[in-house]
Specification:
The protein is of the alpha/beta class. The protein has one domain (about 5-195): Maf protein, CATH 3.90.950.10. It contains 7 helices and 7 strands. The protein has helices at about 10-20, 40-55, 85-95, 130-140, 155-160, 170-175, 175-185; strands at about 5, 25, 65-75, 75-80, 100-110, 115-125, 160-165. Strands 1, 2, 3, 4, 5, 6 and 7 form a 7-stranded mixed β-sheet that branches. The radius of gyration is 17 Å and the shape is globular. It catalyses: a ribonucleoside 5'-triphosphate + H2O = a ribonucleoside 5'-phosphate + diphosphate + H(+); a 2'-deoxyribonucleoside 5'-triphosphate + H2O = a 2'-deoxyribonucleoside 5'-phosphate + diphosphate + H(+). Keywords: Cytoplasm, Hydrolase, Nucleotide metabolism. It comes from Candidatus Beckwithbacteria bacterium CG10_big_fil_rev_8_21_14_0_10_34_10.
Length: about 200
């Protein structure tokens, strides 16, 4: 049986794999994302995911799953905020608007040197976010650990959203299950919902 490696420290990605009953090893790539200079948002997400997978493949053999997720609003990249003030500003900008979440995905078989890399998108329509809830939100939640200062996997974060068009798990967990499951199935793995 081939080893499955999640090239990420993301708790949300781990939860999703566990919910599917998938046994895996977690190895953080520590790849410096700023090394990827790419103006096309879709291509950038995919290139970062591929770079993370290849970095982990230097140490690990098996099926390596790597991802990168970020939000774009009005052509502007919104990654993790540097401080609470920037987090508040990001959420104010998202209020009542539509943003696009890009999730780069890489499934790399380091034994056979085979790679499938894609990007999924999610159009995210935000409701109006009120000042009082914004203040509470940035104080109560780890907004600096989330791209664009929100996490749709968090129930309150999900409550900021009116509608989503596109990859649901790409948005909520930073991992596209619609891409992952068929690739795992080709390797003989099947989801086991009892892993929840």
């Amino acid at each position: 049986m081939v080893n499955i490696v999640l090239a990420s420290g993301s708790k949300n990605r781990q939860k999703l794999l566990r919910a599917l009953g998938i046994s895996f090893k977690m190895v953080v790539s520590n790849f410096a994302e700023e090394k990827i200079k790419e103006g096309n948002f879709s291509l950038r997400a995919r290139k970062i995911a591929m770079a993370k997978a290849k970095k982990v493949a230097e140490k690990e053999k098996g099926l390596i799953i790597a991802c990168d997720t970020y939000t774009v609003l009005g052509g502007k990249l919104m990654e993790k905020p540097k401080d609470l003030s920037q987090a508040k500003n990001m959420l104010k900008q998202l209020s009542g608007k539509m943003a696009v979440c890009y999730t780069g995905f890489c499934f790399f078989n380091s034994v056979k040197n085979e790679c499938v890399a894609k990007t999924v998108t999610s159009k995210v329509f935000f409701r109006k976010i009120y000042k009082e809830e914004l203040d509470d939100y940035v104080k109560k939640f780890p907004v600096m650990s989330w791209a664009a200062a929100y996490a749709p996997s968090n129930l309150y974060g999900l409550g900021l959203i009116k509608k989503v068009i596109g990859s649901l798990t790409g948005l909520t967990h930073g991992l596209s299950i619609e891409l992952l499951i068929p690739l795992l199935a080709k390797q003989g793995f099947k989801p086991k919902p009892l892993g929840i």
